[in-house]
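Figure 2 data, in text form.
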Amino acid sequence: AELANSAPAGRLHALVCDTSSNEEVSAISGELRARGLSPELLLLNAGIGRLADCGETSVRGHRAVFEVNYFGPLRWVEAWLDPLAPRTFVAISSLMAFFASAGASAY
């Protein structure tokens, strides 16, 4: 909210969304379209982690991490990818995306 208040009027819209939910991504995308807004830049920065060994994390736990960290950004790309309206997608991840860490098997 603080960032949105510091931006020039109408240039930044901060909305909260659970990226693990198809319905929420669809609803927020619909709300933006209803306002006549079409983002030129989407920052894909969703991430959660579970610190536990593989044997201590259930498939459900692994799935929850993937729903947010992988499928969450993918939902936004799917919602806004349009060859007739080019835009920029910026995917942000932590170093955990590149370097394995003991105790973070789901991540």
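Caption note: The mean pLDDT is 82.
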